[in-house]
């Protein structure tokens, strides 16, 4: 089976590059990123937890682009071995504000 995280809605979908059955959005356009957040690297449980983080972030902003970068920054801050990013300077203050307000708990990704 091939499962992956939908960065648009947080759903665990079939296929890293396939459309999400919940929101209809497919890939981020970055194949490496899409495959990184798939069952090639993480269990379905961990992908689901990542999805919950996306949902929490989206409850704090209606801006999908801002939510996307906030999620990636959360991963970069909490799990730097997975991904390390620098957020565009035009978004960095908003991203940091959302992360500070939400105080998303870190979880084990075994």
Highlighted features:
globular, two-stranded antiparallel ribbon, single chain, mainly alpha, 110 residues
Biggest β-sheet strands, sense, barrel: 2 strands, antiparallel
Q: Reading side by side through the largest sheet, how are the strands ordered? A: 1-2
Count of individual helical segments: 4
The total number of structural domains is 1
* Helix-strand topology string: EEHHHH
Separation of termini?
19 Å
Tell me the fraction of residues in β-strands, as a range.
5-15%
Mean pLDDT: 95
Shape verdict: globular
Q: In total, how many beta strands?
A: 2
The oligomeric state is single chain
| Helix content range | 40-55%
- The secondary-structure class comes to mainly alpha
Low-pLDDT regions: none
Gyration radius, to the nearest Å? 13 Å
SSE layout and pairings?
Blueprint: E1 3-5, E2 12-14, H1 31-36, H2 44-58, H3 64-78, H4 92-102
Antiparallel strand pairs: 1-2
Protein architecture, described:
- The protein has one domain (3-102).
- The chain is globular, with a radius of gyration of 13 Å.
- It has helices at 31-36, 44-58, 64-78, 92-102, and strands spanning 3-5, 12-14.
- It is mainly alpha-helical and 110 residues long.
- The protein is built from four helices and two strands; from the N terminus they run ββαααα.
- Strands 1-2 form a two-stranded antiparallel sheet.
- The model has no long low-confidence stretch (mean pLDDT 95).
- Helix 2 (44-58) packs across helix 3 (64-78) and helix 3 (64-78) packs across helix 4 (92-102).
């Amino acid at each position: 089976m091939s499962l992956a995280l939908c960065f648009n809605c947080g759903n665990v979908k079939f296929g890293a590059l396939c459309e999400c059955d919940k929101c209809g959005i497919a890939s981020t356009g970055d194949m490496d990123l899409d495959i990184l957040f798939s069952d090639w690297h993480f269990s379905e449980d961990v992908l689901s937890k990542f999805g919950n983080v996306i949902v929490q972030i989206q409850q704090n902003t209606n801006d999908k682009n801002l939510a996307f970068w906030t999620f990636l920054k959360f991963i970069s801050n909490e799990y730097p071995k997975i991904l390390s990013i620098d957020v565009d300077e035009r978004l960095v203050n908003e991203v940091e504000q959302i992360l500070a307000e939400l105080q998303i708990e870190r979880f084990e990704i075994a």
